[in-house]
Amino acid sequence: MVRFAAAFAVVFTASACARLATVDSNALWKIVDIRCVPSQEATGTPGQCTVVDLDKRYVILKDIVGRSQHLLIPTDRITGIESPLLLAPHAKDYWVDAWDSRQYVEHAVARTLPDNELGLEINSPYRRSQNQLHIHIDCMHADVSAAFARHAKDAPGQWHWDTFDGNRYRVMRVTSLADASNPFRIVARDNPGEAAMARQTILVTGAGPSAAEDGWLIVNSDIDLKNGSGTAEGFLDHQCRVADAQ
After folding, report:
1. How far is CA 94 from the centre of its chain?
2. Cβ(186)–Cβ(93) under 8 Å?
3. Cα distances (angstroms) measured from residue 96 to each of 12, 91, 101, 124, 216
4. Which of 83, 91, 177, 179 has the fewest CB atoms within 10 Å, measured from its CB?
5. Which pLDDT tens digits describe the chain residue by residue (246 residues)?
6. Is-contact 70 138, C-beta < 8 A?
7. Which domain CATH number covers 207?
8. Are 207 and 214 in contact (CB under 8 A)?
C-alpha cells in the first residue's frame, strides 16, 4: 500500500471551491457567464478568466487557492460529471482541452514539467461544492506520480485495480483522450446513467514523461465502492512542489 496521507489532508480545507460554496454553489458559473464570456464578446479580453475560447466553449480560470491550479469550465450550463450532456454524440472533448491547458500551470511555476507530474481531476457531486462542471488542472504530488509509475507500461484499454492510502482506484492506460477514449465515456461504459456517474471521480495524468509517446492514465473510483472514493483531488499538489525540485 502506498501512503501519502498528506496529499489528502488538503482536499477540502485548501479548496477554493469550498470557499466559494459558503457563499454560492453557482459562483463558478456566474464568473463564467456574467464576467468572462461577456468581456470576451464585448472587448476581446477574458475578464476575470485567463482564457475564454468561444469556439470550443470553455474558459480557463486561475483558482484562488494554490500557486498554479487552474480550472477548465464550460461556457454551457453543465452541472458536472453526472451530466448526460457529456456523453452526447457531439459533446466537447473537455479532457483534451484541459490537457492542452496544462501550459498555464507551467507558466505559473515558470517550469516545463514532465507530463506524469501534471494531472487533471473531477470530483463526484458528493465531494464537490460547485454546480458547474470544472476540471482541476495542476501539478501532481511527487509520491503519487511515483506510485502510478507501476502502470506506465500497462496494456492500453484494460483496467487494473490498485490501492492508494487505503482507497481503491482502478487505473487504465490510454493512448488518446478524445472521442471513444474520452475519460467520461470510458468510465460511463460500465457506470451507465446519471446516478451511477454521480458516484464517480476521475483523474488523468501522463503515463510517462511524454504523454504523446507514453499515453495517459485514467484513474477512477466510486464513492459506493468498498474503500472507494468520490474524489481524487488529493493526488494534485496545489503548491506544486515538484516544480521546486527541478
Report:
1. 10
2. no
3. 26, 12, 9, 20, 11
4. 179
5. 443 433 333 333 334 444 444 568 999 999 999 999 999 999 999 999 999 999 999 999 999 989 999 999 999 999 999 999 999 999 999 999 999 999 999 999 999 999 999 999 999 999 999 999 999 999 999 999 999 999 999 999 999 999 998 999 999 999 999 999 999 999 999 999 999 999 999 999 999 999 999 999 999 999 999 999 999 999 999 999 999 986
6. yes
7. 3.30.428.30
8. yes
Q: Specify the amino acid at residue 143.
A: D
Residue-range definition of the domain harbouring residue 191 = 5-244
Phi-psi region of 166 (alpha: psi -120 to 50; beta: other; left: phi over 0): left
